[in-house]
Amino acid sequence: MTPDGPIKLVSQLLDLPLLDSEGKYCGIVDDVELRGRPGQDVQLRALIVGPSAYKGRLPGWCMWLVKKVAGARETRVSMEDVRTISSVVHLKRPGPELGLNKSENAARRWLPNKGAL
Amino acid sequence: MRIFLLSVLLLSACSKGPNADLQYIKQARSIAAEWALVNEQAELGKLTPTYVESLHRWLRDDLQTAISSLSEPNSPYGDQMKALLAEPPDTAAFALRARAESLKQIEDGLESA
Amino acid sequence: MNPLELTLGIMTAVGGFVDISELVFAAKAGSKFGYALIWVFALATLGIIIFSEMSGRVAAVAKQPVFNLMRHRLGLKLGLLTLAASIVSNLITCAAEIGGVSLILNYLTGAPYVLMAIGMTAVFVTSIWVLPFQWIERVYGLLGLFMIVFAAALVAIRPPWNQIGGGFVPQVPAGLTNKELLTFGYFTVAIISAVMFPYEVYFYSSGGIEEGWGPKDMLTNRLTSVLGMALGSLLAISILASSAQLFGPVNVDPEIPGSAALEAAIPFGKWGLILALLGMLFAVAGAAVETCMANAYSISQFFGWVWGRHKKPWEAPRFTITWIILFLLALAIVLTGVDVMMLVEFAVLFSILVLPLTYLPLLVLAGDKTYMREYANGPIAKVLGWLYFAIITGAAIAAVPLFVLTSGGNG
Questions:
Q1: What was the pLDDT predicted at C33?
Q2: Does C317 touch chain A if contact means CB atoms closer than 8 Å?
Q3: All domains of chain A, ordered by start, with CATH?
Q4: Alpha-carbon distance B74 to nearest alpha carbon in chain C (angstroms)
Q5: Nearest CB to C318: which of A49, A57, A107?
Q6: Do the domain assignments include residue C178?
């Protein structure tokens, strides 16, 4: 489905993997951002990616552990950058342009670029 | 369910005497029988010397561990297990099988009690 | 469908079926209960065939491996719990495999156990770094075919084939004491766990993605799962049957993994022994690689990292660092000196507890027409899938009490 079609947030969007325009995995839909008010239309504005988004979904003691291990970062991906949603969320642009996969780039510095067939 | 499991765990941990040592007697019996089989096959030229030496070492290590785990090491079965450990590695298969058989008799006696 | 590729895939599955847990439990089951537990191996093999085929199908059609979909289906909390449990289970299993490989090298060469553990971990890390995915799978899987010597050894000792055939009929031996019945129950649960280890499904489904499977590969998936696992299972059953014939009558209840090699030495002498040890070495080594990679796949897929050995290691850096760290952690467990047989017992115990959580999302997903379209579970797959889910859930509930009451099957 496309972002402007009907969608069930929990069963069809939350916890789906994200694939950028180059076909690379760049996170999971950890939370969503809605805009609206009670009594008015509610709009899905953005997808939230990152360990900080686990707050409210995990118990407090778990969040302490998550922060220690993974940090407190969070990236907001606007729904305008989403192309389609199926078994994954396909994005319109490369992950780094959207602020995703920063840890991937940091981890790359630890590894040599040779020796693999 | 939690209370049941806890009780079972505690009971297992606290038991002493021949019944608690039964698993180690079985282990020692099996080690004696395995050792006998290895020596018998080595005698027939079917095993490499490295394999035989290695198995001797690991079997005797396991036997030592079993003896150390006994709640009554100075019992008749404890003495039998120590006598087994004292045997040289290349003991004749029939002698080892005799030791396995006498441990089996103790094992069967405890199981039927 | 390329016949050569298919044949290689099946042979890889055959050579890679047996790991240290199956080796240990097959030998012990045969010596303790004769042929009476053959049907449990057959039952568990049918289970792993069903779930492997499902996971391969999900990978090929939904283009998603098990753990991606697991988080989506179970949610964050239950998904994290499943991930944590499967990390622990796979880590202990990997440690057992590394310990097993080190023992086997000690039997073969006399080289010190600790040195072999460190050396082999370095070999595993190097081989995964250097080799592309297909080579990793095939090198260990095809070399594991030395295990065929166990099947040949069984034929050579002229066992009672009618009794072996009778072992395929579900049974509980008559005349067992209560304690023996409990031990039989424990072995039933342990064999189901050892054959249906969760890492096998994670590795198989991720491997399908690594190899770029699509709907055109349905037949390859089905044939590899069915033939590969069934033939591999026959190797494990050969070990059990030889143990029943050779060890049971002389009161040997194999205390160390190396004793299994006697089954090939007795009929074939030194060459049989060496081939058996080589087969065990490569089969267990392959399992060490699979368990570690399965863990790395699970973690990477759960958090949405770039993953896969179809990429160069530096192109999937978090995935690469993860599997290296996991190998080092498994090695650390081995270097504490804990007995390999004890690691095997705990690996089997933890795995059966994780199995229901592993297979439930897969079962639901494989039946979901939204993802699977015309490839969703048919009536046979549905019935068998849910039947096996009930079996493994029952086994998971019984596992801990049986382990405690039978002192880990040692009665």
A1: 97
A2: yes
A3: 9-108 (2.30.30.240)
A4: 22
A5: A107
A6: no
Please list every residue in chain B whose beta carbon sits closer than 8 Å to the beta carbon of residue C103.
58
Q: What is the pLDDT of residues C228-268, one digit of tens each?
A: 999 999 999 999 999 999 999 999 999 899 999 999 999 99
ipTM, 2 decimals?
A: 0.92
pLDDT at A7 over 80: no
Q: Does A44 touch chain C (CB under 8 A)?
A: no
H helices of C255-314, in order, are 262-303
Instruction: Please state whether the predicted TM-score (pTM) of the whole model is above 0.90.
Output: yes
Chain A positions in Cβ-Cβ contact with residue C371 (cut-off 8 Å): 87
Confidence at residue C4, expressed as pLDDT on a 0 to 100 scale: 80
Residue numbers in C near B8 (CB within 8 A): 401, 404-405
Among the partner residues B30, B36, B46, nearest to C273 by beta-carbon distance: B46
Does any CB of chain C come closer than 8 Å to the CB of residue B33?
yes
pLDDT band, very low/low/confident/very high, at A1 (cuts 50, 70, 90): low
The CATH number given to whatever domain includes residue C130 is 1.20.1740.10
Lowest mean pLDDT among A13-17, B51-55, C120-124: A13-17
Q: Domain total for chain C?
A: 1
pLDDT at res. C342? 93
Per-residue confidence (pLDDT) for residue B8, from 0 to 100: 53
| Pairs from A46-50 (Cβ < 8 Å, separation ≥ 24) | A46/A76, A46/A77, A46/A78, A46/A79, A47/A13, A47/A18, A47/A76, A47/A77, A47/A79, A47/A82, A47/A89, A48/A74, A48/A75, A48/A76, A48/A77, A49/A18, A49/A74, A49/A75, A49/A76, A49/A77, A49/A100, A49/C304, A50/A74, A50/A75
Burial of C202-220, coded b for 16+ CB within 10 Å and e otherwise, reads: bbbbbbbbbbebeeebbeb
